Amino acid sequence: SQSWEMDAVAPVDGQQTQAKSDLVVLHHGYKSSADGDFSPEFCARWMAASEGQCVLLNCDTNSGSPNDEGTMACAGRLRDEVLAAVQAHPSLKTITMVGISFGGLICRAAACLMHSETDGTIAGLEPLAICCLASPMVGVRATLPAPYRWITNLVNSCPTTQELLLQDAAQGCTRGAGNNQEDPVLVQLTTPPFLRALASFQRRLLAMSTHGDVVCPYSTAGLVPWAPSQEPEGDAPTGISGKHMDLCDHGIPGFDLMDSDGDG
Known about the structure:
The chain has helices at residues 34-37, 40-49, 71-88, 102-113, 146-155, 159-164, 185-188, 192-199, 218-222; strands at residues 2-4, 22-27, 54-59, 94-100, 126-133, 203-207. It is an alpha/beta fold.
């Protein structure tokens, strides 16, 4: 993994450089990499803004083929990276997690794997915020245009794509830890252990594009069955438009608990 620190900050008047208290965990999207979604320049700017308080962990153990192994397998590797960072930096006190696209699902699952039911900590740290950027919260089966679903099934059928298309339970590929492991992994992420881990964060943030995101449009990224306005047909950069009506009526439980003010 890539761990960024403010090594350029020099001690003043013989004092030691201030111990770092905040761990910020970044996770890239599907078929991407640490540098692909969070460039060194981006990480350097974040470090500068943190004024030396932050250890920035840009996770890369799921880059490449490991990304195909499903949400829970990727979450396990992310957990191992985070725990190693916590052990290497005993001054850490808080944790923030940021995931792009599929990385948002991985962060959600990993938070549960690291959550203490006793004191509400994540990896032994106080959870500050979790942010999912354009993440397929309820999958892409109803948002991905049909030709692309067929291509995905033919060319790249793997645990990850089966989970995002809500086909993993039928294929026997579930790797979750929910109440019913026969359920799709995305359903398992809405069960109480995962929701309690989410609720432990002081802030839970979703970010999504209003238009132009073919794979993860506003509805699936924002957990709503609507969009601010109709996607401009034929005007998308790719020449196709993702659907906005998603699987919020698919019977997935628990979304009503994921409110924005901390008591869900």
